[in-house]
Amino acid sequence: MASAAVVDAGDAPEPTVRNLLDQESLKWVFVGGKGGVGKTTCSSILSVLLASVRQSVLVISTDPAHNLSDAFQQRFTKFPTLVRGFTNLYAMEIDPKVENDDLSNEGMEGFLSELTNAIPGVDEAMSFAEMLKLVQTMDYSVVVFDTAPTGHTLRLLQFPATLEKGLEKMMELKNRFGGLLNQASRLFGLGDELNEDAMLGRLEGMKDVIEQVNRQFKDPDLTTFVCVCIPEFLSLYETERLVQELAKFEIDSHNIIINQVIFDEEPVESKLLKARVKMQQKYIDQFHMLYDDFNITKLPLLSEEVCGVQALQNFSKHFLTPYKSALKRGTVEELEERISILKSALQEAESELDRVKKGKQTA
């Protein structure tokens, strides 16, 4: 892959996303992975980081369960809105099912429903094409897609083929029904704009847009896909499936973000925590083994959600500098911290015991 980091023997790519900021030719950045791994947080932070080096950035959520509004703590719609605190970062949320409403005006409903039932995903493809048309007229220097879970993302990549099928089906329907639809349109006084020729033209136009964009998607200088995952078996499996599919669609991918990593830095001993760290390490090792030519960024599991511009900016440092544990096991500092915590816990337990004893005596 042209833009993937070159790996020398024994020299792994940098474990950060800095390569995405350095690649000035990038136009489209997809962020995807299994549900619940933190894609929205990662795409939000990537867009914040890109806004610091690019002229204008648009982050788009194509996930029906929109979380961009939660991440930035600001309401977004299907139109690009400037993110508070920025002069060059915009966000929008599109819902393919809702977006399709303005395609299926009354005179076309029967025609469209037969078309969309015949080709699953054609309604999404049409709405995606409309959205891309809109984005292209706005001329952002880079667009970040916060995609829905993996299955939906893969459908998105198949849209050109889906629209091809749609056009074939449209021609078939046109041949079958002849001028019936035109007569019905005139009968109900709906005008010529609702005939199947207009619809066919619109679909053709969308197919042109999607094919043009698809050519850009296959250009590693313009497009890359960032896989977000967590260090667990199912997420590893899903990431592998995603990477294979991306290769099949000739879409560049050389960044993996492993989210929710537990760094063993708590001075208090915990069997549960130790077991979890050990399990995660096993899968992290597998990620490194499978994707030794990828930039693999590890992000720490936090005790609170990353919400709001300030929190996103604070957390963004871990995308550019590998995270290091605050305390190292076996050091004087770690042992002193552990003794201090144990003394404090002992004092609390003794106070609790005194209260319980006094309570029994008064009873």
From TrEMBL:
Into which family does the record put it?
Belongs to the arsA ATPase family.
Which keywords does the record carry? ATP-binding, Coiled coil, Cytoplasm, Endoplasmic reticulum, Hydrolase, Nucleotide-binding, Transport
Stretches of the chain forming a coiled coil according to its record: 332-359
Recorded protein name is ArsA/GET3 Anion-transporting ATPase-like domain-containing protein
Q: Write out the catalytic residues in the record.
A: D63
Q: What is its main location?
A: cytoplasm
Oligomeric and partner information = Homodimer.
Gene3D superfamilies registered for this protein in UniProt: P-loop containing nucleotide triphosphate hydrolases
Q: Which GO terms describe its biological process?
A: tail-anchored membrane protein insertion into ER membrane
Give the protein's function.
ATPase required for the post-translational delivery of tail-anchored (TA) proteins to the endoplasmic reticulum. Recognizes and selectively binds the transmembrane domain of TA proteins in the cytosol. This complex then targets to the endoplasmic reticulum by membrane-bound receptors, where the tail-anchored protein is released for insertion. This process is regulated by ATP binding and hydrolysis. ATP binding drives the homodimer towards the closed dimer state, facilitating recognition of newly synthesized TA membrane proteins. ATP hydrolysis is required for insertion.
Identify the species of origin.
Answer: Digitaria exilis
**Is this entry keyworded Secreted?**
no
Q: Name one GO cellular component term.
A: GET complex
